[in-house]
Amino acid sequence: MSIESLKNALPEYAKDQKLNLGSLAMDPTLSAQQLAGTFIVSALASRNAVVIRAIMAEFAPKLSAEALNAAKAAASIMGMNNIYYRFTHLVGGDYPTLPAKLRMNVMARPGVEKVDFELWSLAVSAINGCGMCMESHEKVIRHGGLSAEQIQTAVRIAAVVHAVAVTLEAEAALA
After folding, report:
1. Where are the domains of the chain?
2. Is the pLDDT confidence value at 107 over 90?
3. Residues 6+ apart with CB under 8 A from 48
4. Mean pLDDT (whole number) for 9-27
């Protein structure tokens, strides 16, 4: 499986996703590590086995073992954090002032540059819809020197990978 196999698996009505996948896979805005990691975390956050396998086959070989582990860790930790912080943000009250009491050690030493880990965390947060996390990660990334265009590219990758997963799941359900 690869990006090409994902594109071929999409129905004709999802032609835009085919085109978007192809162009984003070669987008020069992000470093090679940032691009590959963003695709991987987005696939993991999509929770679609076909998408995960194809994206991993395409992009995992482009990352060091440490960077691949960091990407997996970003998807994992944000799976937890996005739920918790979305709750505290939406419900309000006393919850935002209470200590989270959740282990998040990987965020202090992710195994890659902090800005890359934060970028990947932002992509997962965009897929999971946690506004508080998106705002927090975007601020750290901007402070780390990435541009609005680079951040937008990561979110575009997240959006397209998620759309591909939704489309493939819908087609499988209709089959």
Report:
1. 3-174
2. no
3. 164, 165, 168, 169
4. 96
Q: What are the C-alpha distances in Å from 21 to residues 99, 119, 142, 166? A: 40, 19, 25, 14
Would you please indicate which residues are annotated as catalytic (active-site) residues?
130, 133
Q: What is the Cα Rg of the chain in Å?
A: 16
CA neighbor of 36 nearest in space, from 20, 57, 51: 57
Q: Which CATH number fits domain 3-174: 1.20.1290.10, 2.60.120.10, 1.20.120.520, 2.120.10.70?
A: 1.20.1290.10
Helix (H) / strand (E) containing 4 = helix 3-9
Looking at residue 54, its pLDDT comes to 97
Q: Which of 63, 152, 70 is nearest to 117 (CA)?
A: 70
